[in-house]
Design a protein that fits this description.
Isopropylmalate Dehydrogenase; twelve-stranded mixed sheet; binds nicotinamide-adenine-dinucleotide; binds 4-hydroxy-L-threonine-5-monophosphate; zinc ion binding; 4-hydroxythreonine-4-phosphate dehydrogenase activity; NAD; cobalt
Length: about 350
């Protein structure tokens, strides 16, 4: 049986549906075997946004089962609707209805992946305030999927540790902590969290790269603490955690100065990167360098889950939603990475 990939529609008020429609329109080969989990009317509205009037339209086909995605005619968007999804919400506004619908689609796709019915899920962006307004108790996809996978496995969430990786062709970064305040992120720089991040990164990237990843560990403080002059986290916490992971066979080096470690890891034709991945101590330390290189190529991958999940590295872009100008490139890259991880052909 050919497995399919579910693309969740994201927040209907954001650019998710329209970048999905654009991807199906302009990147048919990459989107082969993919279907959308979402609301048919939302995808029809998005299709109208991306095909200028008089150009023949972009048909949306309702399907009842993932396998039906393999039968739809070319240039048609297969949509598997879920019961009770609300109609498309006004562009660019936070709405609880859109947050709830986005979460419902992700939960459906995660369950299908956990049951082995689909090869992977690719999540279009949702808005975290909308998710919160809907009463969903998780800040983003990563935490939602972690909880869903833990429930499926019948274990507490703490026994399903996951980490966020952002990757583009030049740089990869994995975060010690994700959606918490900067104060909480500082508290999350613990021996246990760092060792766990190193082990998850090592296990997840070894099969992808075909060798153990060379992991650079960023320090927390300016110049990685300068020998304890600007903070003791490197001496007291990060270096011992690296030593423990190294003893377990992880190829980790550091702590290295955070302001130069990404430059050293960046892999370009003129500069082979010194490392395969940088372990960042908190969200923005890792994501700023990756996003600064451009949102077109970046992909967000959740490491540690018993399913394959990728996502574009940008959000709902409420400022441009509904204008038909949003770039689908990062979503297409996310689909390509999911295909690669699932062992499906990459076009
Ligand atoms: N995968 C996800 O679900 C995901 C990822 C990141 C952010 N978010 C959420 O999205 C919401 C909005 O976040 P934000 O405003 O900080 O970041 P954003 O990525 O939505 O937008 C930042 C800027 O980049 C532009 N932009 C983003 N994607 C683009 C695209 N494909 N084409 C052209 N321009 C694009 C936007 O117009 C905006 O100017 C927040 O709730 C955030 O948490 C979700
Ligand atoms: N931290 C991510 C980013 O900035 O790209 C984003 O918020 C997405 O998070 P989830 O994949 O957990 O929704």
């Amino acid at each position: 049986m050919t497995k399919t990939i579910a693309v969740t529609m994201g927040d209907s008020a954001g650019i998710g549906p329209e970048i999905i429609a654009k991807a199906f329109k302009d990147h048919r080969k990459a989107l082969e075997n993919c279907f959308v989990v979402g609301d048919v009317a939302t995808l029809r509205r998005a299709a109208q946004v991306v095909v200028p009037p008089g150009q023949g339209g972009l048909p949306v086909a309702q399907i009842a089962h993932p396998q039906e995605a393999l039968q739809v005619p070319p240039r048609c968007i297969p949509v598997l609707p879920l019961p009770g999804l609300p109609p498309p919400q006004p562009w660019g506004q936070v709405s609880a209805a859109a947050g709830a619908a986005a979460a419902q689609c992700v939960q459906w796709a995660a369950d299908a992946a956990l049951r082995g019915e689909i090869a992977a899920l690719v999540t279009a962006p949702l808005h975290k305030e909308a998710l919160h307004a809907a009463g969903v108790d998780f800040p983003g996809h990563t935490e939602l999927l972690q909880a869903q996978a833990a429930r499926h496995a019948g274990v507490p969430i703490a026994q399903m540790p996951v980490r966020m990786m952002l990757a583009n062709p030049e740089l990869r970064t994995v975060l010690v902590s994700i959606h918490v305040s900067l104060r909480q992120a500082l508290e999350a720089v613990t021996h246990e969290n760092i060792v766990q991040t190193l082990l998850i990164t090592h296990r997840a990237l070894t099969p992808i790269l075909g060798h153990a990843p060379r992991i650079a560990v960023a320090g927390l403080n300016p110049h990685a603490g300068e020998g304890g002059l600007f903070g003791r986290e490197e001496v007291d916490t990060i270096a011992p955690a690296i030593a423990q992971a190294r003893a377990a066979g992880v190829d980790a080096l550091g702590p290295l100065a955070p302001d130069t470690v990404f430059m050293r890891a960046r892999n370009t034709p003129n500069h082979p990167g010194e490392f395969d991945v940088v372990l960042a101590m908190y969200h923005d330390q890792g994501l700023i360098p990756v996003k600064y290189l451009g949102v077109e190529q970046g992909v967000n991958v959740t490491l540690g889950l018993p399913l394959i999940r990728t996502s574009p590295d940008h959000g709902t872009a409420f400022d441009i939603a509904g204008q038909g100008v949003a770039d689908p490139a990062s979503l297409v890259q996310a689909v390509c990475m999911a295909r690669q991880m699932a062992g499906l052909s990459v076009r």
